[in-house]
Fold this protein.
Amino acid sequence: METVKIGMREFRENLAGYLESGRPLAITRHGETLGFYIPGQRKSRKAEIAAMRAAAKEHDQMIASQGASEDELMEDYKEISKVAREKTRNAK
């Protein structure tokens, strides 16, 4: 992919668009290159979804291995949250 030269002012004014474009840039001032923007490699949407599904499956397996139900976990979470809120209130 070819590097595009753009002025510093233009880069600053259109920063979000340039960052989302995914193309490498040479940032210049008065025709002199100050630096480069090289975008990171983006994961595909399908890869992100597959990773989330794998994490959810692993999470479900961890819960099942503990022998706990979703209701029990929710009750534990609510109790932990309640205790944390009370500690915060008492600390003030």
Q: What stands out?
A: The mean pLDDT is 86. The radius of gyration is 25 Å.
